[in-house]
Amino acid sequence: MKKMIVLLCALVLSAVAGYAQESRQDVSISGVGAFAPVITGNSVQKSTTTTLGFLASYRYMLTPRSALELNYGYAQNTQRYIVYGKSYGGIHTLQHEMSGAYVYSRNYGNFNPFAEIGVGAMIFHPLKDEGTNQFDVKQNTNIGGLFGAGLAYEISPSFDIRAEYRGFLVKTPDFGLPGDTFKTNRYEVISSPSIGIAYHF
């Protein structure tokens, strides 16, 4: 009986050790560029300054090729509006992304191409400072869709360099002005190519 217990304990410890050695999770931090197109609709034209930001991600491997990912992205920009030909200046905006995605990847030696698709929220938070000309603006939280593709290059069993194109399809913000002054009734794709490093554990 004692031998059976010892053997069973040895098998359990061996399984736990094997699981612990397998990297099923990673965290990454990346620098991003944030680009948005000029949007025109409802006699309103919106443009957005190009800016830099960062992206933090957590990825959990379900299988060797499939994973679930959680993301937080941050950038600052200025949203500018022209309504019926009249310029309303800019709105200095903090732009936060919170999203979840399914990731499919392949392995070719040290190269790991991947693609992802998911959903999330883009939060447009106006800063009422010298960069904002309209002080009755309100925060917008808009639900949208995430898509992207990229390549990870393994530099060690624990680290890889990750480059990706990411797009976020979301309704353009109107900042809740009375009379829907800034409402375009249009969607935009916010592009955010990124490059960073991931740690596997």
User: Helical element count?
Assistant: 1
Average pLDDT confidence is 91
How many β-strand stretches? 11
* Integer-rounded radius of gyration: 22 Å
Q: Give the total of domains.
A: 1
Share of residues in strands: over 45%
As laid out across the biggest beta sheet, the strand order is 1-4-5-6-7-8-9-11
In short:
The chain has 201 residues and is mostly beta strands. It is built from one helix and eleven strands; from the N terminus they run αβββββββββββ.
Describe the structure.
By secondary structure, this protein is mainly beta. The chain has a single domain, classed as Porin (Beta Barrel), CATH 2.40.160.20. Helices cover 10% and strands 61% of the residues. A hairpin with a 4-residue loop joins strand 8 and strand 9. About 9% of the residues have low confidence.
Give the SSE map.
Elements: H1 2-21, E1 25-34, E2 39-41, E3 44-48, E4 51-61, E5 66-83, E6 86-105, E7 111-126, E8 140-154, E9 159-171, E10 187-191, E11 194-200
Descriptive key words:
201 residues, mainly beta, Porin, 1 helix, 61% strand
